[in-house]
Structures
1.
Amino acid sequence: MENIAQRPPAVRFCDVWKSYGTGQNKQFALQNIDLAVPRGSIYGLLGPSGCGKTTLLRCAVGRLQVDHGLVVSLGKKPGARGHGIPGNLVGYMPQEIALYNEFTISETLHYFGRLCGMPSTKVKQRIEFLINFLKLPESSRKVQDMSGGQRRRVSFAIALLQEPKLIILDEPTVGVDPLLRQRIWNHLIDISQTGDVTIIITTHYIEEARQADMVGLMRNGRLLAEAPPEQLLDRHRLETLEGVFLKLCQDDQVADDFAGQESVGHSSLADSEKDDLTEDPPLLKAQHLQAPTNSNSSFEVSLSGSHLKKVNDSCYERFRMFTSAPKFGNIIALFIKNLLILKRRIGFLMFQFLLPSLQIVLFCLCIGRMPADLNMAVVNNETSGTLGEKFLSKIDPVYIAQNNFSHDMNAAIQSVKDGTNWGVIGIGENFTQDLIARFIPGSQPDNKTLDSGTVHLYLDMTNQEILMAIQQKLMDAFQAFADEVLVDEGMNPNLANLPIKIEKPVYGDLNPSFTNFMAPGVIISIPFFMATGLTALSFVIERKEGLLDRSCVAGVSAFEIMAAHVGVQFLVMTVQVALLLVFALLVFGVPYEGPLILVIIITLFQGLCGMALGLLISAVCDTENAAIQLALGSVYPNLLLSGIIWPIEAMPKALQYISMVLPMTYPAEAMRYILSRGWDMTYMAVWRGFLVTVGWGWALFALSILILKIKGM
């Protein structure tokens, strides 16, 4: 019978170290791991939680990069150009369920089948087989409607789907019926013997690992032993693997205590002590090893008689950004997956469509309108004449409601202090005579006469917008009153006008609206912040649930994930922008003098820029709370500093410089010039806004990809 250890290795770990944290918080998850998994075998990896099993598996599929040492899977380093690991050569089942709850079994397997480049007919055949083999419900059953055990079996089915050459299973039989567990093991044994498939499996059920061809026992990041199960039992003269593992752990603990007492200096295993796969792997006793200080060391590894060339760890392709071109098939698979998720969340999708429209409707209804029903106390002390009463009659009752306090000025002032009225309109006893005296030719009224012929206002000036509205309406009333009085006296009514005449505006109209000032910035800010909020959690949730990791093991890159996400969100954003502009420009009549196509394009570009910011937030943050807080925290600084709410010319100089580098300042200015002035791309202020938007968008997208690469995607 063939000695399993004499087969060439499918997976090889040589002097591998992996740590987490830095400085005093640095902890080693893997220490001097020398491990060989023979091709066409089942390798059982055993050990308690936290011993480094999952870390080792993630290194084998290229999801983690080691600090030192060499990992080879199916003849190449994981992630090497053109290699199928990560990709369709490996089937991976993580500890987490890592399934999309909205998907059916069929949709789940079709998604991963597309990532592996499988024809749809082949996927259907495999789905039928796996459903029967794993005793799964009907293929139309949603993941969220299944039990925990059924979900775990679906997760296992994904690992078997494309019939890969390397299958890595992290606790696949937890919560599985014992009969089905044995059936799974029989299938793994069958495909490993007849299909040249290599399987690495971790399990809590130590005794079931006796069915493996090789087992590796781990503790505290170290490999205690590696050998066929029967050889371990014979060597230690025990009847169970659990007993062997307990004995090795006890020996390892004694070695730990002895080393701590003696303070012995530790060193790594010499190259000569490493296993040669042409011989039976010896039992590797745990040793206390010190991490190599030179992470750039080079070494050679013997792989079944052939030698790999020297490999420098610093060139371990830590940033594989440009090692391979994006795969169009992966982007399509991700695009379809994202569309399916939106389809299953139809209520949320409608909310996405309607929320920007609701925001612009609320803006147009609530902002820029003249305040109405403003209470004003009136004290008319006029005893002779009617001009005071005539003036009061010219005040528009829609905007200012008059509350008569007769001749009691103190009570009127107190009503303002109590918050009942916004101010007091005071008219003196001789208002009519003293006002006419102003216009009698040759008369020279003194200051007392001028003051007596004046309407006195005592205002609550704590609200500037209310104050400005009151002043505007009282000025309008006095203008109408003065025109009428001058006509009655046979005089030219234009005598009441200020000696300043505002001619026909170059841009805009004679009655500017604050709504029209804010509208351009609001129109571009709504899709910007909507896109930011909707994408800020895109990676966080999938990363937390293991979905992102599983897709990446299937060969998906950060760029492909972003491209698919941008594609789907762009479709959503197109509908949002269409509804937004219909309400703003057509329903509420926000004036637009320039080309409508430029308005549409710059609004869409701002949405894409906001999407890029959301992706960056999602790439940076590891928790939902952090992502939400960062997304919300970006809203007010951008709104306040971008000249949307108030002109940037009113800001301190230092803040003006900050404002100029923000992603919405120049685009808001460009939108304002397109809408109100009718400018096109021939004006610098317009094309500068487009240029800033595109520049910010690309920069944020590139930074997001870089951060995801640093984090191991």
2.
Amino acid sequence: MYMELQVNSLIMKTRGFVKALFRKKQLSSRDCKETSLHRCLSVFDLTSLGIGSTLGLGIYVLAGQVASTKAGPSVVLSFFFAAVASLVAGLCYAEFGARVPKAGSAYIYSYVSVGELMAFVIGWNLILEYVIGTASVARGYSGYIDSLSNNSVQNKLKELLPLNLNGISEYPDFLSLGITLLLTLMLAIGVKESSRFNSIFMVLNLCIVLFAVIAGSFEADIHNWQLSKSEIPSTNTSYNYGDGGFFPYGFSGTMEGAATCFYAFVGFDIIATTGEEVKNPQKAIPISIILSLLVIFLSYFGVSSVETLMWPYWDQNRAAPLPYVFEMVGWHIAKWIISVGALAGLSTSILGAMFPLPRIMYAMASDGLIFQQLATVHGRFKTPVIATVISGIFAGLMAMLFDVRELADMMSIGTLLAYTLVAVSVLLLRYKPNVEYVELESSTRSLRKKDSNPSLEPHLSDSSLDHMTTLSSESVVDNSMLLSKENYTLWQILQQIFNFNNLSNPTHLSSQVSTYLVAGIVLMVLVFHCFVIGFEDHFSSLEIQVIIPGIILALLLLIIVVALWLQPSNSGKLSFRVPLVPFIPFLGIFMNLYLMMKLSKNTWIRFAVWMCVGFIIYFGYGIRRSSNYLQPKDVQVTNDSRCDGETKSTNEESPLIK
């Protein structure tokens, strides 16, 4: 008997633990409309914000470095593949923004729509994205300033303080540390982002980019895309510059370049953090994301094209490659014009990277998922001062110790994972049962009717029923489905996999089948990519022993995607919905995971360490201190669901281990 009680207790605690990972942040319809922030931003303001925060380091630094070390002239294709992956992610972000028009980006979207563990992973990776984004732009900023003085600071520091460690910068960049700390101080004392300031510098930046493309086209030489191996430095030098031609490092190098170039598109998601400050967020956010990504891609494509056409790719691994190229072809005045645009672009980029970081940390700390001290607001300056200072110091140290290429790879892997999870979340939400806006009173009566446990009833008093409000379909659990005890037969499940009954509306069974199909897609994509990357050289030579297994894996993956496509999806009204579901989210998952696997081993090791630290914080601290944590029998129903971390959960009891 004692052993049976112990086993039952362990089962209950395990179930409670699992439920805790998927508990959701509850929002009322009033919460999604009301805000204490001023709704003043238009589509133009948001588009300027997205372009300004993104169009910087990729133009002035990354294009030349990726061309010289990874992709050669095919860097233009690297930017194209990265743009496609970013566009797919942008569409998924846009649907999330239409579902939950609140500040907080994908973190709050996933917390409301999917669950707590998914929200933590996305939020933790957004912290990595913004920290390293700040560090990399600061590093590029200092490199540009130093290049104007013929790299005198860099050369002196290499001589006095060399860092001979693998994966670390050659010297400590104190200038980038100082730039980051100065910005941290500005943000900590309450300096707010000005859309007018950002728009002016964004227009100046675009004018310089347009000048670079037009001026560079006069010096373009197609021969620089057709260099023979004899025209590049021999491989006995300190670096191997490939075999020449348009793909000097092969198509694999082009995709490695795309994985790094993906970093250049990171920043458009800052648009999603402004949901409470936009006049019409459901329409303005999707339009702004798509417009900003289009302008950013055209800028990257144009600059990388003229840059590699003007000068050989192998000689562009510089701190400031774009003005260097113009100087080498004799356009000395262009060096200074472009440097002005670079400083303007990098100024908006570093502000765009640093500004959202304390917001994400503040939101997570307010929800209790990370240390709640980070949600402390300064009484005078009204800023999350502790989060701002800690994130600024961390970003400054990263900028001081790592070079731009290492930082870009680290940022790319975290962002790619976050975008993958956003695409997965969109798929999960699309195939959930279509629960329309319902009054909680009727839901509660349904619960009482369905549930045989009367112990819940005292918590649902008449006074509570009188004050219950309408909740959004994304926040309410369909209790009749949640508490369903029906056991489906194998034949029913097999029928539903291909929807032989031609269901048009989702059911509990179709939702469960869809969830497993989404999990199967992610697993099969990972297996397919491991196989393709592991036998990449054999595929290029069309060896039959790898072609046939590859085709089989591709067909299995296609069958799962088609099965998901056949499932009934909900038809809830949204101002923006991702088109061609599930194919576009699947494309995002496919490309993002492939680009992640093309990143270096050292990048994966650093990322694994970052995620381990995050899980230690969450499972050791956040899971018990979450604002959605419920002690047994503490089921509460309230109409005061707020978005500031004081949200009450209406989930079932979660008997976690104390």
